[in-house]
Design goal:
By secondary structure, the protein is mostly beta strands. Helices cover 2% and strands 49% of the residues. It contains one helix and 54 strands. The strands form 13 sheets. Strands 46, 47, 49, 50, 52, 53 and 54 form a seven-stranded mixed beta sheet that branches. A hairpin with a 2-residue loop joins β10 and β11. The chain is elongated, with a radius of gyration of 43 Å.
Length: 653
């Protein structure tokens, strides 16, 4: 049961004064460690909320912002909560421990417990006339009991239903402004009635009872305690009944099954609905039945359908609503800062594309359940490359039917955003909407030289980007991306092109590289990127050893080896991880060179590869050898294919 304790009156007055003076803040949402709230209660004196979590056997305590203060644990299947009239004590029905426990709300320590009897499983609570009333049991074995807190030793009494046979533990409600009255909802069956008890004698007697459709999800008493607003069953509206005769007083239409309800001190009714169609889950009804409901959509998931999870702050200024969380062990705690105000839905629709310096039209609408009049002012801001912080386009007026439109001629191309804002008023919250237009820009000329060229290893090569006509920006970036995963793409130069439109950078060509020139665009010319891929050979040489002399045959230098001496070939090549050099051997015969053998040999980390070519065993044999790097076949592709020079040798006696 949720009540507004009389002892909080001063706190209510002070809080109201502060809210009136302070500007409204934005609605907030915070994750709280509650699987599902069986009950939620507001402590206005200590500015706290208590959430009972029957799945995690605990009560979670937070401040008004949802920030965790403490957890009261070891409460198996804890369900209903209730505050004493002075807000000094919190009572909790501990279903699976057959008891009711009491906590000091200031220190959050347990002060008492009241066993209710084996297998009584208490679940519902209400404080009235010095007693703590509780609903207990399961299905047709349910009943009404009480704990007399005025006795020197509090006593527990069961079977106080005054002849009514409850189909489930009754949901209980009471209000100090209507003493001697206890309300019980028989919610476990379709024929379950609403029962009003007279408890003024200390023993309940049925004052009035009426069937209202059963399966009641939740209820809340009006501030004077004379009426009750009931949520459920099915898709029926919330319904208000007089407790004196249970006659219907008012209905509150909703679009989906009502789940929870709470009433502010001024009589404003708030409720959540299941909202399976995601149309709006939180309703606020003014005391004036002629005004439409204010509807918000706090969650895109179904709203909780078990327990009580909607509450007003003690002063009635804020609305607290629980909704589904991000995982099975948490929920979302929503704070609505101006719940009585109507949500205004603002939409802006601009064309997807447009031509720069040509007129375009932006249309839209501003709608609310409490309609806004024609002439309502809307402010418009345009954000583009020329005005990155936004430029005001003045105030536009809402037309009849909540529509608006305006024209504009965008001076800049690229992404142009039109933001339309409604400032709100005494009955509506502010709203903002925006839409973006892709406005055309001219295509600039951007070129980069050296594409496809091959250079010797270590060659210093100048790459020049040329930028044609633009509007304001003359800045170009040049990036170098060497082949190989160990070298990242790197910005090597950024600057303003010269009077000829050129920007140059010199690169040391030790690898193949993709060089990119980038113009990021300006208000009238679109971004442009161009690439040039240039290639670098490896540095490679071959040396022969164990020869006894060198000499020329014709114009070619030969290394001379004795016929039984092994030829040692040493290759030196630019190193790269896992690189191999290809060694090619050819033999000269009858005026022609014939391939003898070709094989790949791995380079050492010093870039060297030593190979024993063996010996001929006879004189007069002429041969040649060379080392090569073959792109991809040599174990990598970071350089271009490079053939080393032939080394010639001959065997003699």
């Amino acid at each position: 049961m949720r009540t507004l304790p009389a002892a909080t009156a001063l706190a209510v007055l002070f809080s109201s004064a502060v809210l009136t003076a302070a500007p409204a803040s934005a609605d907030t949402a915070r994750t709280v460690a509650v699987t599902a709230a069986a009950d939620t209660i507001v402590d206005g004196v200590h500015q706290r909320l208590f959430f009972s979590d029957r799945y995690q056997n605990k009560i979670v305590v937070t401040d008004y912002a949802g920030k965790a203060i403490a957890e009261l644990t070891g409460l198996p299947q804890v369900q209903d909560l209730e505050l004493s009239p002075d807000s000094g004590t919190l009572y909790a029905a501990v279903y699976d421990a057959d008891k009711i426990v009491a906590f000091d709300t200031a220190t959050l320590t347990q002060t008492a417990e009241y066993p209710t009897g084996t297998r009584t499983t208490p679940s519902r609570l209400a404080y009235a006339d010095g007693k703590l009333w509780f609903g207990y049991g399961d299905q047709w074995d349910s009943g009404l009991g009480s704990v007399d807190l005025t006795a020197e030793t509090p006593t527990v009494t069961l079977d106080l239903a005054a002849g009514h046979d409850f189909a489930g533990p009754p949901k209980l409600y009471a209000d100090p402004d209507n003493p001697g009255t206890l309300l019980a909802l028989d919610a476990g069956i379709s024929s379950g009635p609403i029962v009003v008890y007279d408890i003024s004698s200390g023993t309940p007697a049925i004052r009035v009872s009426a069937e209202k459709g059963g399966f009641y999800n939740d209820a809340a008493l009006t501030p004077d305690g004379q009426n009750v607003v009931v949520a459920g069953p099915g898709n029926r509206a919330l319904t208000e009944y007089r407790l004196s005769d249970l006659e219907e007083v008012r209905t509150f239409p909703v679009a989906s099954e009502p789940e929870t309800v709470s009433i502010a001190p001024d009589g404003t009714v708030a409720a959540t609905v299941l909202d399976t169609d995601d149309l709006g889950d939180t309703y606020v009804f003014a005391a004036d039945p002629g005004r439409p409901a204010s509807v918000r959509n706090l969650s895109h998931s179904w709203m909780p359908w078990f327990g009580h999870s909607t509450n007003w702050s003690a002063d009635g200024g804020k609305l607290f609503v629980m909704s589904e969380g991000g995982d099975n062990d948490s929920s979302t705690f929503n704070v609505v800062d101006e719940p009585r105000k109507y949500v205004a839905t603002l939409k802006a629709d601009a064309p997807a594309t447009a031509t720069r310096a040509k007129s375009l039209t932006v249309k839209g609408s501003l709608v609310s359940t409490l309609a806004l009049p024609a002439g309502t002012p809307l402010t418009v801001t345009r954000t583009d490359l020329e005005s990155p912080n936004g430029k005001s386009l003045g105030t536009k007026s809402l037309a009849t039917g909540g529509k608006f439109s305006f024209t504009d001629t965008p001076p800049a191309g690229g992404k142009v955003t039109y933001k339309v804002s409604y400032a709100g008023d005494a009955t509506h919250v502010p709203a903002t909407a925006s839409d973006t237009v892709d406005v055309s820009r001219a295509t600039p000329t951007l070129t980069l030289n050296n594409n496809g060229k091959v250079y010797d290893y270590g060659k210093d090569v100048a790459f020049t980007a040329h930028l044609g006509t633009t509007y304001k920006s003359r800045t170009v970036e040049i990036w170098a991306n060497p082949f190989g995963s160990d070298k990242p793409n790197k910005l090597v130069k950024t600057g303003t092109v010269n009077s000829s439109g050129n920007l140059s950078v010199t690169l040391d060509m030790t690898r193949d590289a993709t060089v990119t020139a980038v113009f990021k665009g300006d208000a009238r010319y679109a971004p442009k990127t161009t690439k040039s891929t240039a290639y670098a050979r490896v540095k490679v040489s071959t040396a022969l050893s164990k020869h006894y002399k060198t000499g020329k045959i014709g114009s070619t230098t030969y290394y001379y080896f004795h016929k039984n001496t092994d030829v040692i070939s040493t290759t030196t090549m630019s190193y790269y991880k896992d690189r191999k050099q290809r060694l090619e051997l050819q033999v000269y015969s009858q005026g022609k060179w014939y391939s003898g053998a070709t094989e790949y040999f791995k380079l050492g980390t010093n870039g060297k590869s030593v190979v024993n070519l063996g010996h001929a065993g006879k004189s007069g044999v002429r041969a040649r050898v060379r080392s090569s790097y073959i792109n991809a076949s040599s174990g990598d592709n970071v350089n271009s294919t490079t053939h080393g020079a032939w080394k010639y040798f001959i065997f003699t006696s």
